[in-house]
Amino acid sequence: MAQETLTSESPPAAPAQELSVVVEKPQVTDKEPQPSAPAPLPEPKVPEKPAVVAVEEEAVEVEKPKVEEKEETKITQSVSFKEETNIAGELPEPQKKALDELKQLIQEALNNHEFTAKPEVEEKPVAEPEPKKEEEEENKEEKKVEKEEETPAAEISEEPKIVTDAPAAVEVKEEENTPPPPPPAEAPAAEVVVVETEVAEKAKAVDDDGAKTVEAIEESVVAVAAPPAEKEKEEPSAEVAPQSEETKEALVPSPPPEEVSIWGIPLLADEKSDVILLKFLRARDFKVKDAFAMIKNTVSWRKEFGIETLLDEDLGNELEKVVFMQGFDKEGHPVCYNVYGEFQNKELYQNTFADEEKRSKFLRWRIQFLEKSIRKLDFNPTGINTMVQVNDLKNSPGPGKKELRQATNQALNLLQDNYPEFVAKQVFINVPWWYLAFNRMISPFLTQRTKSKFVFASPAKSAETLFKYIAPEQVPVQYGGLSREGEQEFSVADAVTEVTIKPAAKHSVEFPITENSNLVWELRVVGWEVNYGAEFVPTAEDGYTVIVSKTRKVSSADETVISDSFKTGEPGKVVLTIDNQTSKKKKLLYRSKTKPYSD
Fold first, then answer.
1. What segment(s) does the record annotate as region Disordered (predicted)?
2. Contact call for residues 532 and 506 (beta carbons, < 8 A)
3. CA angle 452, 456, 462 (to 5 degrees)
């Protein structure tokens, strides 16, 4: 362990000062007062209802260019809230009840296929009665044909009145063939056959003059037998209609409940599903119907936007320096960095926002990046399912860029409506004074829950603010940390020690070293402008001090991180000295490791 000595004693660290800034109101009168879309933020400022987090927010002092202190306006500090649980059994009773009611609504919607309902599905029950109409029309046509057949039969039967035997035969046969009780359904057809057979036998005994009479008898017999047949046709048709109405649903088998997933998690499956549903409930203050409507709208939008196919699209890597993921905060949330200063590159700006097609591509790229990041989250009830957003406003194009503002508003609307509760903290760094003024304008329109996630830091306080939430070994070097790509000696697993050096004070760091050892260290002072030197002091009294690094002044432009090493064959210590001759406090970061070696 390194032993530290201070030349001048440091009093206890001063409490964080309240953030104060003077607002020149005339300079913000031309801003658009849209509460959900601050101009320079194309990235999710996220939602009216962002995510859960237990990080405390502290106001940060911001430097004000040429502003009189007399007209000072303070931005009040937001009250942080405690991170809510995602374990269903630990929810308060009202929230647990709301979750159960939401599940019931979703289950009914899945059973009725409301998430993927199409017009054809709803019209199917109406289309089924159409065959009945066709049958009725066919029955009517048959009746008309039969009536037409009956009419000539009656006319012919009037002609053979001259013959005396025929009418008697007809009467006898009709009387004989009229059964007292009504026959079964198939009986009328049998009677017709019998009558025709008997009439045919008698036809042989009649002379040629009575041929017409026999034909008339046959037609009259058939005509007499026809009405029961018509009744049979009418009666079943009358019975089929009500049966088809009652059994309509039974005839068409109901499809199984549909399966709907969001971010790869089914809406109703297990504990992970509860985590998803709780996000929508919290976004709507546990109003069940509002949360259910939000879920349905999100599912519909994801299909229209083509989220599943979007994940496989190749949208290029031109914006990889604008938005990127790197490291985790102290609570394990992944950190997403949004660097708007990159749009100072005119070529990049034009290629991204010049026209509607390019802005649409940027929006799809941003949604694709967010979707891929969300898929890496842990949706278990005790897992990490939110992220931290760091928004770097240094050299941001500002609100004057119409194209950027349009893309910002569009992205924010989509994120607010379809990605609830995914942001644990919104940290704005390198914030210009005008942005704080703009934020004050829109602050009344934001909920306390949303405001409690916002943290603002001026350029001078950006690194210090980040270190409150993210360990220095996880912070990229461009933001004051020690996280670098491609390094081999140290990684994010090697912890960093933080020390605050008072103004006009020296600070020494000692690394003990044993015999035949190789000591490796790296350090940085945020903002530098200090003197740095290193030397080896042997344990033996008769040993000689060795200058490892001659004392020199290091500016912010010289080196970001100093990496050095020292090999020795005798025990002793390496002493690093940092001399802060400025009137400002300095943040020192360092870490080391010892490796054995042999000559």
1. 1-50, 110-191, 226-257
2. no
3. 135
pTM score of the predicted model: 0.66
pLDDT tens-digit readout, 20-60: 434 344 443 343 434 333 333 344 433 343 333 333 333 33
Burial class (CB in 10 A: 0-12, 13-18, 19+), 353: buried
Q: Extract long-range pairs of 301-306: CB within 8 Å, 24+ residues apart.
A: 301/414, 301/417, 301/418, 302/262, 302/418, 305/367
> H/E/C letters for each residue in 528-569?
CCEEEEEEEEECCCCCCCEEEEEEEEECCCCCCCEEEEEEEC
Helices (H), 159-252: 165-176, 187-205, 211-246, 248-251
pLDDT digits (tens, 9 = 90+) for 195-241: 344 434 444 444 444 444 444 444 444 444 444 444 444 444 444 44
Q: What does the CA dihedral 522, 525, 531, 533 come to, rounded to 10 degrees?
A: -10
Which has the closest alpha carbon to 366: 395, 327, 336, 401? Answer: 336
- The residue to which tokens 């359904």 are assigned: 185
C-alpha to C-alpha distance for 340 and 191, rounded to whole angstroms: 96
CA angle 556, 561, 566 (to 5 degrees): 130
User: Which residues, 6+ apart, have CB-to-CB distance to 231 below 8 Å?
Assistant: none
Q: Hey, is 157 helix, strand or coil?
A: helix
Angle at 333 between CA 332 and CA 334, to 5 degrees: 115
